[in-house]
Amino acid sequence: MTKVGEFRINRRAAIAALLLATALGGCGKSEAPKGEAVKAAAVSGAVEKPNLKLGFIKLTDMAPLAIAKEKGFFAEEGLNVELEPQANWKVLLDGVIGGQLDGAHMLAGQPIAATIGYGTKADLIAPLSLDLNGNAITLSNKVWDMVKADLPMEGGKPKHPISASVLKPVVADFEKQGKPFNMGMVFPVSTHNYELRYWLAAGGLNPGFYTPGDVGGTVDADVKLSVTPPPQMPATLEAGTIEGYCVGEPWNQAAVKKKIGVPVITDDEIWHDNPEKVFGLRKDFAEKYPASTAAMLRAIIKAQQWLDADNGANRAEAVKILSQSNYVGADADVIAASMTGKFTFEQGDTRDAPGFNIFFDKFAGYPYYSDAIWYLTQMRRWGQIAEDHPDTWYFDTAKAVYRPDLYLAAANALSEKGVIPKESVPETDGFKGEQSGFIDGVTYDGKQPNAYLAKFKIGLKKGQKVSASGVTGG
Can you tell me the distance from the alpha carbon of 78 to that of 184, in angstroms, rounded to the nearest whole number? Predict the structure, then answer.
């Protein structure tokens, strides 16, 4: 049954303040079909733009959007939403910037990079984080067979986390044969790129630096990284074009099922409870349609809560929904292999992973400034940001993109109505405290980005720049 909200919007205040808080609505108890809910909300003026098109990539972490639609949360908020899969992250980004899409399931780095003009220039915002964790790094069977014998064992299985240092002799062997050691990730400003680079560097392997205007990022690289769209990762691995990859689910588990590769580490083992995707949209959209933006956020937050409710009691249903061809389109057992509290590393090695996908718990939806700043530090670390910047630049950039004010307006409206628990809305200045849980033991404080960058053995230092001939300065 679908609960249909009755919305009360102070439009005069919305126009005056241009703040999402003015677009707060309530959730009532009346019931009606989804289509009638959309029509009623539109007639009442609850939203300025009831018909919306949102984009996504076929990954399990698009789940909040699918659930918001399938469980009627968008309809409750007076929205008629079409969800449209995109061919790759570049097409998705262009669709949001060009207005063909009203918003999207986005890589956290995409609105940040667009705002600073890396790759493309556009004013995008991230008013909500979609999830924590959700990625893994997979190696080809050939490479796995080369490293497995040297791994420390625990209970008859490889001890985790597995360090990238195990790849050093493999990379050296490839070099002796005159062959590059290639790995894949999904986009130059993706979490996957930075996680794969982080893991490699923590193991003593240089993943390469970017030069201005260069999207390859292979200067001084021990391991060459290239872009492959997520659903194509298993086929690219099987073809031998790459020897491993970092991607979101279900495309690591797909390699296990096809018996073509072995996931060796999850992103939670690289950085415990790391932020993953965001809900991204144009800044001018949020300003022009504050009530519609508020409604979208409320619906997605409700979906996030549903996904994590009762210790994952709804995950089996979520898996069935995501397996539909119009969403992720992978076999239900492949999606379930990572989304229902377990994770399979290789045949016969399935382990408990209750936090592999977190959508609502641990304040997963709140867009922390410190999360945005971490992405900016990695852009600088690998040369995508060519020059040094003071700490204040990192703070100002994060605050231009991540919009906790919009998130809080939506979340507090739901909390006041008893839809989500009051304690699920954080009281914070937008910065997490000093964070540990990284595979290299380095701690991160979002209020000290330059001090954080100085801690790494591999990565650009203060004053350093990158050219085709290598790193200079510093």
Answer: 41
Q: Cα separation of 164 and 249, whole Å?
A: 21
State the residue for tokens 């057992």.
333
Domain residue spans of the chain: 11-130+279-367+403-424, 135-272
Tokens of residue 29, six digits: 């108890």
pTM: predicted TM-score of the whole model, two decimal places: 0.90
DSSP class of 463 = T
Q: Which amino acid is at 35?
A: G
* CATH no., domain 11-130+279-367+403-424: 3.40.190.10
Q: Token digits for 128?
A: 């909500």
* Rounded Cα gap, residues 311 and 288, in angstroms: 38
Matching fold, domains 11-130+279-367+403-424 and 135-272: yes
d(CA 149, CA 172): 17
Superfamily of structural domain 135-272? Periplasmic binding protein-like II (3.40.190.10)
Q: What is the pLDDT along the chain (474 residues), one digit of tens a residue?
A: 333 333 333 333 333 333 333 333 333 333 333 444 444 443 344 899 999 999 999 999 999 999 999 999 999 999 999 999 999 999 999 999 999 999 999 999 999 999 999 999 999 999 999 999 999 999 999 999 999 999 999 999 999 999 999 999 999 999 999 999 999 999 999 999 999 999 999 999 999 999 998 889 999 999 999 999 999 999 999 999 999 999 999 999 999 999 999 999 999 999 999 999 999 999 999 999 999 999 999 999 999 999 999 999 999 999 999 999 999 999 999 999 999 999 999 999 999 999 999 999 999 999 999 999 999 999 999 999 999 999 999 999 999 999 999 999 999 999 999 999 999 999 999 999 999 999 999 999 999 999 999 999 999 999 999 999 999 998
Q: What region, left, alpha or beta, does residue 421 occupy, with left being phi > 0 and alpha being psi -120 to 50 degrees?
A: beta
